[in-house]
């Protein structure tokens, strides 16, 4: 294979967790008396760093308020996120193919590492992932390049032989800033045309087209 290390975003790339995310935000907005947002408005924030997503949906900018709302969101997430997160049918086959070929795999996400691990353990595929960089162990959130650099350092991998796969412009910007190749997958809320102006090796309908 062309690359030795494959790093993936999580939400809308390896798994569809929009139902759980929408549920949590709907509860958060309702309980704190913020204006209702449509499901489409909420889905457009998936993949952003949580403080930014909360700020967009609530209009809040104060760091203390955003921190409180994020903790409240996490409480809701504990009750409904993992059971409403499902891997795409192409996820396990592509991860198994990469591992069988001797490649390293990782997840670099603005979701928490703890929450990602819950889904991996639920699906019995934790052994297919070598490293997870989530919000609680990332030096900075995406689109900063640091999370990808952290993953590469942990795997002793180099940039020229590494690729990042994601579904959003945040992912494209992260890969570009980190100096690694980027492959876009159209399983999220971002369409083909949005990726054209960013460096990429391919734009895929699904992970099946990765290799």
UniProtKB/TrEMBL annotation:
GO terms for biological process: DNA repair. Pfam families: HAD_2. Transmembrane segments: none annotated. It comes from the Bacteria. One of its GO terms (molecular function) is phosphoglycolate phosphatase activity. One of its GO terms (cellular component) is cytosol. This is Phosphoglycolate phosphatase. The lineage of its organism: Bacteria, Bacillati, Bacillota, Negativicutes, Selenomonadales.
């Amino acid at each position: 294979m062309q690359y030795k290390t494959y790093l993936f975003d999580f939400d809308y790339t390896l798994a569809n967790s929009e139902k759980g995310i929408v549920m949590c935000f709907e509860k958060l907005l309702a309980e704190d008396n913020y204006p209702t947002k449509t499901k489409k408005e909420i889905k457009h924030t998936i993949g952003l760093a949580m403080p930014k997503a909360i700020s967009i949906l609530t209009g809040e900018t104060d760091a203390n308020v955003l921190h409180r709302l994020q903790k409240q969101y996490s409480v809701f997430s504990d009750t409904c996120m993992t059971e409403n997160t499902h891997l795409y049918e192409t996820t396990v086959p592509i991860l198994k193919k990469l591992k069988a070929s001797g490649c390293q795999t990782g997840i670099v996400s603005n979701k928490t590492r703890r929450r990602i691990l819950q889904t991996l353990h639920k699906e019995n595929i934790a052994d297919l992932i070598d490293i997870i960089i989530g919000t609680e162990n990332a030096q900075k959130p995406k689109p900063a390049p640091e999370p990808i650099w952290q993953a590469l350092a942990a795997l002793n991998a180099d940039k020229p032989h590494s690729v990042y796969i994601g579904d959003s412009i945040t992912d494209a910007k992260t890969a570009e800033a980190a100096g690694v190749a980027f492959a876009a997958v159209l399983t999220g809320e971002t369409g083909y045309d949005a990726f054209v102006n960013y460096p990429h090796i391919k734009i895929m309908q699904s992970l099946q087209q990765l290799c």
